[in-house]
Amino acid sequence: MKSPTFQDVLKARRAIAPYLAPTPLYSYAPLNELLGTRVYIKHENYQPVGAFKVRGGINLISQLSPEEKKRGVISASTGNHGQSIAYAARLFGVEARIVVPEGANPGKVAAMKGLGATVLFHGKHFDDARLYCEELAATHGYRYIHSGNEPLLIAGVGTYALEILEKQPEIEVIFVPVGGGSGAAGCCLVAKAINPQIKVIGVQAEQAPAAWQSWKQRQLVTAENRTFAEGLATGTAFELPQKILWELLDDFMLVSDDEIKRAMVWYLERAHTLAESAGSAALAAAYQRREELQGKRVAVVCSGGNTSLEHLKMALMDA
Q1: Is residue 318's pLDDT more than 90?
Q2: In which element (H, E) is residue 200 found?
Q3: Which pLDDT score, from 0 to 100, does residue 126 have?
Q4: Which of the four pLDDT bands, split at 50, 70 and 90, describes residue 78?
Q5: CA distance 211 to 222
Q6: Active-site residue numbers?
Q7: How far apart are CA 318 and CA 229, in angstroms?
Q8: Contacts of 251 (CB under 8 A, 6+ apart)
Q9: Secondary structure (DSSP) of 253-275
Q10: Which residues are within 8 A (CB) of 28 and not within 5 positions of it... i.e. 6 or more apart?
Q11: Which pLDDT tens digit goes with each residue over 172-226?
Q12: Bridge partners, residue 58, by sequence
């Protein structure tokens, strides 16, 4: 697989511009006070499907060949990637099938079905669904869309970093959540092309550390996947995002599920915004590093807002 470039991100922005408006980059006094410095929240939870991945879905499906569109697409997802593919497939008249784990977020499943995708349930974890999805693609000839190893997906999601730095070119640190790693990889491509001094910090759940361990060891590994944060719940690292992260990511952090829940509540209380568990991880990490961030301009990616009522109740009860 050939890694996407900064030029590919610029092309992706042209591809998605007719369909997606830039998302807000807001600073909130209560969050600034919490972290002790100026913090800007990139609100990807304001996307039409509630998460950043729709950028990549539109960029990829808009560039499928007529033959690929005719075959239809299939992908595995815990929810947000699947919504992205379903949304983009509907835009371009492509039949979409999404394989999800049996315990997938009901709201995300309903959204995928509402967007016209066929949703198939398989296995307990994301990786179970992914392997079954690959079998179906091989058997039926569908165009398989991997949730990480797709250059067009990475280039597409990298456009949110373009928007951050256009609004606030003096940003010095960007915290971005990592599940499969496409968002962090795209962010690195943009940030390092514009200003190599910007530090990009990836954030993963300590209960699902496969990508973190792979980045540390510089080889692909699997790890236990027990986090409640479904957007971060990957037990296997992905080759293409890791290749980019090994070269460009400055640091990688782990946060606990309890820290993620606390950050979900901070978003509600201090920014009046709904963030899902994965979307709250970057804020939890920034709080961990708050002493090191004093006097710096910081961007925190709120990658999505598709939380379930069950997860919201858990966060509020544990706060």
Answers
A1: no
A2: strand 199-205
A3: 87
A4: confident
A5: 8
A6: 53, 303
A7: 15
A8: 199, 201, 202
A9: EEE-HHHHHHHHHHHHHHH----
A10: 39, 41, 270, 271
A11: 999 999 999 999 999 999 999 999 999 999 999 999 999 999 999 999 999 999 9
A12: none
How many whole angstroms from its chain centre is CA 198? 20
73 is written with which tokens? 């697409």
- Tell me phi and psi for residue 108, to 5 degrees: -70, -40
Q: CA-CA distance, 28 to 38, in Å (whole number)?
A: 9
| 38-77 residue pLDDT tens | 999 999 999 999 999 999 999 999 999 999 999 999 999 9
List the end-to-end C-alpha distance of the chain, in Å, as a whole number.
43
Q: Are the CB atoms for 261 and 206 separated by under 8 Å? A: no
Residue type, 294: Q
Instruction: With beta carbons less than 8 A apart as the criterion, state whether 192 and 87 touch.
Output: no
Q: How confident is the model at residue 89 (pLDDT cuts 50, 70, 90)?
A: very high
Return d(Cα 210, Cα 116) in angstroms, integer.
32
pLDDT of residue 70: 97
Phi-psi group of 114: left, alpha or beta (phi > 0 → left; psi -120 to 50 → alpha; rest → beta): alpha
In eight-state DSSP terms, residue 184 is H
Gap between the Cα atoms of 295 and 104, Å rounded: 41
**Cα(58)–Cα(313) distance, rounded to whole angstroms?**
33
State the Cα torsion 120-125-129-132 to the nearest 10°: -120
Closest listed residue to residue 189, CA positions, set 53, 10, 1: 10
Q: Domains in the chain, start-ordered, CATH in brackets? A: 6-51+152-318 (3.40.50.1100), 54-148 (3.40.50.1100)
φ/ψ of residue 255, rounded to 5 = -130, 150
DSSP calls for 12-55: HHHHHTTT-PPPPEE--HHHHHHHTS-EEEEEGGGSTTSBTTHH
CA angle 249, 1, 224 (to 5 degrees): 55
pLDDT at 158: 98
Q: Round to whole Å and give the CA distance between 113 and 51.
A: 16
pLDDT above 90 as % of the chain: 93
Residue 276's Cα: distance from chain center in Å? 11
Instruction: Name the token pair of 9.
Output: 């991100």
